[in-house]
Protein 1
Amino acid sequence: MTGFRFNSLFSRLALVLLSSFLLLALMLVWFSRQLDNNFQDEVTQRLHFSLSEHIVHEGPLFKGDEPDPVAVEKAFHNMMILGKGFEFYLLSPTGKVLNYSAPKEKIQRFTLPMTAIHEALSGQARLPLRGPDPRSGDRNKIFSVAPVVMDERLQGYLYIIINGEIYDSLASEVEASGWLPLAMLMLISGALFLLLTTLGLFAWLTRPLSRLSGAISQLQRQGFHAPALQLDSRAPAREIQQLEQAFNTLSQRLQKQYKKVKSVDEMRRELLAHVSHDLRTPLASLQGYLETWMMQHRQGQQPDPTYIDIAHQNAGKIHKMVDQLMELARLESDQVPMQMESVGIAELVQDVLQKYRPAAEAKQVLLDLHPKDPGLQVVADIEKLERVFTNLVDNALRHCQAGDTITVRFVAASDALEVSVSDSGIGIPASDLPHIFDAHYKAANSIRGDSAHSGLGLAITKRLLALHRSQIEVSSQVQQGTEFRFQLQWA
């Protein structure tokens, strides 16, 4: 994993997680305190809920309509012996405090709201139930209450605060003694352990994404020379492994496309250099003969008509070179339409050989086809396939001498028709064989004569066969001939 950065995925997850855990810890502390207080209050209130009733039954607390000070003092004294945390109050039916077991200066409310008291006496109260604390203006505490009835007439209520001021003081001392900090420390330690464990899990999950981000940054800095991302077999999820694999596949594809574009660009620059050199000769000859013809014409001389013939021949050479260049550029664009149909290949080759027969007879070269079976049908673009045989036969004828033979042969295989175009001409040196399909490559013993051959014919042939999903192969020996082989699918 790369260095910690605030804007990274892991750092943001860690920040959110830390904030969430802090908030959760505070909420847990608060809720645990509330639950603990409620639990203790409920247990204590259930334990002492009938305390007021027991005291009331021990003896009358009123004399007439007024509290009996002696009886009240005696009852309060006896109960204080049982528990110093209790606080006793004698209330009127309307909630007015008539008597109490506390110094007068500590009483802040002399009239109490009766809602909680009535709820407790209804028998349907849900504990813990808290009532008003006379020693505070707004505090509520658990209590016990019982009505004081004499002669079937309600005289008032005995109201007991169960955990009084003394209890609060003792609880504060116990809390300050270290129990609460210890509990808090245990809670925070558990939360911290869970936080660190989760952060470790996030780090494990985000590490492959960080590696992938680093690989992308490296690709941006180094371009297509950046090394491939090493796949992590321990990646936490199959989706992350697929993402890494997809990145590597995309990177490799981009590298291949970049190399292909670079290679094509270099080839085009080289081709342009060669073609400009080849065009220079016929252009110079064309210009020279035309200028000579024009000069003779201006001087009143009768121009030699052969000058026009030679100029026309050179113009034809230039035209053929330009056509081949345009054809190769179109084939390399990968936007060539194909009209695939059933083709009688023997008849097609017969037409091509017939076209070259006059030139072959002039050089005393024999053209042959075997077998001459009109039933041989292949799937091909007839125009492009004719161009393939034209280029191969033309190339073979230029490298043959008197007495040589050019043979087109078909061999039927189960899945395709094997085609070979062979000659018994001068052959190709072994060092030149790997390059003869490169655009404008010139073999060491190449024969071009004075015709317009730019060296593009075999490159065009290879591309045309590639459009037919076929690969061309070549074998040759010097002074023994050359053979080109490829396959075509049956119709």
Protein 2
Amino acid sequence: MTAVHAAALPVPRNTSSLLVLQDGRTVVELGDTTRASYVASMRKSLLSILFGIQVDAGTVSLDTTLGELGVDDVGGLLPIERTARLRDLLTSRSGVYHPPSSPGSDEDAFPARGTKAPGQYFVYNNWDFNAAGAIFEKASGLGVFDAFEKHLAGPLGFDDYVPTRQQMLGDDQKSSFRAYHFFLSARDLAKIGLLMAAGGQWQRRQHVPREWVRESVATHVRRADMAPATGFGTCDYGYLWWLPRESGPQWEGAFLAAGNYGQFLLVLPAIGSVIVHRRVVSDSFAIARNTRTATASTAGPAPVTHSEFMDLARALVAGPLAR
């Protein structure tokens, strides 16, 4: 560990690596931060960044509906579902409760199909996120991973990015929209955090529109308006970013990418800091989890929970990141 001893922090037992930067300087480094592994639902925040480039280019509008985009799925969408706008998908409020192709949604909290108008109700829904990936590809003319390499991994000089390792995964019998799964290292994810903390700028060049960075991490869904099953503490929600609501000026404008089993990227612009936490998940498990049938079971690794990560983040903000 660099600069701060591990014993001084409540590092969760199942942590694989931890990387903390402030003003571009390494404050804490624990474990192998060069090892690329499954990022789980952090993928959604990465897609949000890419969407900003397309919105700015005018290739897609957030107010375009699924019907206008020609979006359909296995068994067909309902007329009311076709009225959902892209911005409803980016805030997980589409009102489309079609089975998603990949696990991880709060499916037990899904209302009956056709009972919620688009934009009315937040429930964590992989159908929204996966369909948004397909819409992005149609709008940009690029696959999600090709766009990621072109606009982010290449320009930011990723050290551990392997294009062929990134995979579209899902059960096509449930939904035609697969999940776009990334396998990235902590140090490469930290570069994403630094880019976003700087308002989309990297080495004096604007890679992501500053207005999109601001808008994507603004509050679009309040915690009080989320389905009770959503297990993210006091977080609000932006465009595919979680927004921690903690007390103190250090937390002003904070935003979080989070994935199952303990994948976290927390950006704290007010104190120029980025926290990356990883819990390594094997490729074989990640692939099995995202391609299994509804009746199959695959035991996962012991996770690091959102609550455990936030305890660590608070200790870092109060300690080595304090200003």
Protein 3
Amino acid sequence: MRAIKEARKFIERQPNDANAKTLSRLVLALESEASFPITDLYLLDADKFKLAMEILDEWRLDRHYASKVRLFDISMQLAVLDPGKTAQARPANPAS
């Protein structure tokens, strides 16, 4: 739960930071089971790369549903603010 909570707080504090945007897109991809370019993880600084790995580990365990919901919510808010970068993390709408 620590990584998910840390990521949420980081994204809330610095929504325009490139690392926050990448972590947000990762969360959106995980939640929606959409593709995420793994090479984007290499663009993160070392601390945020480690945080991304911890998020993946926690997400996989799926123990902390409430924390994930809050992190997903802030990631969706960022997606609305920066739709160009987050569009690729959203699954295609089959009804379109």
